C-alpha cells in the first residue's frame, strides 16, 4: 500500500494553501496514509494548521534552528531521511517546491515527476508539456519512491476539518551542509490577496503602457477585492516586480475570475491561466489571441473602459 509524505510550505508561521492542494493530490492516489512534514525553527503554529487538513493521518515535525528559513540545501537532506518507508513524497509546484523537490529526488536516486495535474494510478500521472499545449502521461518506477511536484492550479485545497491529526516530533541524525546560508528575503508587501490563492485576479500587460499607468490596474483590483498580476511583457518592461508575473515562467493560477487588461495573450501567459473559472479580456486589438480563450471580451481603450466598469460596479 502507498504511504505519502507531503512537504508543508509555510512562511512567517502560516501554512500556505498550496499544502492543502498537495494533500488533495495525495488523496487521489488512495494511499494507506498521508503524513505532512513540517520543517521550521518553531513548528507549533504550522503543525496545528496542517493537522486540521482533511485526510491527513499524522503531522511530523522537525524543529531545528537551521530550518528558520526554507533553504533547499538544508531541508532536502532532512526530507530524504524522513522519507524512509514512504512510497511517495509530494511538494507543491511553487517556487518552494520546485526548489526543494529536485534535491530530494537526487538524494533518493530517483527521477522527479513535475507538475502533476491528475493521478491515473498509484504510479501513473498526467502533466503538461510544451507550455501546456499537450498533456503527457508518465509512469514512475513502482520499485522506487516517487518524488513529485503538484500543479496547485489543477487541485482544490483539501478542506480544514474539525478533527486534528496527531502531531509527532521527529529526531533525525542527519548532517546538514554549511556552505549554503540565508542572507535576507526581499519580497513585496501588500494588503491585497495573495496572487496564487486569490479567487479574483486582475492582470495588466504591455498595453498598460508604463509603471505609472499601472495604478489604474491597482485601483480597479482594490475596487473588486482582487489580487494583481501581470504579463511577462509588463514585468520585463519594468512596470511591476517579477513576483507578479503570471504564466509559464511565473505563477500558475486558477482564480474563479481572471481579468486580462492590455494583455495580448502569448501562449506562455495562457498556460498560467488555463484553469481559471471565468476569463475576461480587455484589449484594443480585436484580433489579440487572448480573446480566443476569454469568456467575455471588450475591445477598446482600457483607459476609457476601466473607469466605465468602475462606475457600473458602483
Automatic annotation (TrEMBL):
Transmembrane segments: none annotated. GO terms for biological process: fatty acid beta-oxidation using acyl-CoA dehydrogenase. One of its GO terms (molecular function) is flavin adenine dinucleotide binding. InterPro entries: DHS-like_NAD/FAD-binding_dom (IPR029035), ETF_a/b_N (IPR014730), ETF_a/FixB (IPR001308), ETF_alpha_N (IPR033947), ETF_asu_C (IPR014731), ETF_asu_C_CS (IPR018206), Rossmann-like_a/b/a_fold (IPR014729). FAD binds at residues 206, 231-232, 245-249, 262-269, 283. Gene3D superfamilies: HUPs, TPP-binding domain. Keywords: Electron transport, FAD, Flavoprotein, Transport. Its cofactor is FAD. It comes from the Bacteria. The keyword Electron transport applies. Belongs to the ETF alpha-subunit/FixB family. The electron transfer flavoprotein serves as a specific electron acceptor for other dehydrogenases. It transfers the electrons to the main respiratory chain via ETF-ubiquinone oxidoreductase (ETF dehydrogenase). This is Electron transfer flavoprotein subunit alpha. It comes from Dyella psychrodurans.
Amino acid at each position: 500500500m502507498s504511504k505519502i509524505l507531503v512537504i508543508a510550505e509555510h512562511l512567517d508561521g502560516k501554512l500556505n494553501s498550496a499544502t492543502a492542494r498537495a494533500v488533495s493530490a495525495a488523496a487521489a492516489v488512495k494511499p494507506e496514509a498521508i503524513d505532512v512534514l513540517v520543517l521550521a525553527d518553531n513548528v507549533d503554529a504550522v503543525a496545528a494548521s496542517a493537522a486540521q487538513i482533511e485526510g491527513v493521518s499524522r503531522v511530523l515535525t522537525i524543529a531545528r534552528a537551521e530550518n528558520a528559513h526554507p533553504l533547499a540545501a538544508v531541508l532536502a537532506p532532512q526530507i530524504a531521511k524522513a522519507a524512509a518507508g514512504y512510497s511517495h513524497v509530494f511538494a507543491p509546484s511553487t517556487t518552494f517546491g520546485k526548489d526543494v523537490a529536485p534535491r530530494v529526488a537526487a538524494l533518493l536516486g530517483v527521477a522527479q515527476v513535475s507538475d502533476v495535474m491528475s493521478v491515473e494510478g498509484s504510479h501513473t500521472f498526467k502533466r503538461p508539456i510544451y507550455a501546456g499545449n499537450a498533456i503527457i502521461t508518465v509512469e514512475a518506477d513502482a520499485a522506487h519512491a516517487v518524488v513529485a511536484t503538484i500543479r496547485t492550479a489543477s487541485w482544490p485545497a483539501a478542506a480544514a476539518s474539525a478533527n486534528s491529526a496527531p502531531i509527532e516530533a521527529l529526531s533525525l541524525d542527519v548532517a546538514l551542509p554549511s556552505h549554503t546560508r540565508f542572507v535576507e528575503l526581499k519580497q513585496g508587501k501588500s494588503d491585497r490577496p495573495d496572487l496564487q490563492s486569490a479567487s479574483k485576479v486582475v492582470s495588466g500587460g504591455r498595453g498598460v503602457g508604463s509603471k505609472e499607468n499601472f495604478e489604474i490596474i491597482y485601483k480597479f483590483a482594490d475596487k473588486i477585492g482582487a489580487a494583481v498580476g501581470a504579463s511577462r511583457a509588463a514585468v520585463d518592461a519594468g512596470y511591476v516586480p517579477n513576483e507578479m508575473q503570471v504564466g509559464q515562467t511565473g505563477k500558475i493560477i486558477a482564480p474563479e475570475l481572471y481579468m486580462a487588461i492590455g494583455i495580448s495573450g502569448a501562449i506562455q501567459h495562457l498556460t498560467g491561466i488555463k484553469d481559471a473559472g471565468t476569463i475576461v479580456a480587455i484589449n484594443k486589438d480585436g484580433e489579440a489571441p487572448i480573446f480566443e480563450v476569454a469568456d467575455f471580451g471588450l475591445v477598446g481603450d482600457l483607459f476609457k473602459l476601466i473607469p466605465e466598469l468602475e462606475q457600473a460596479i458602483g
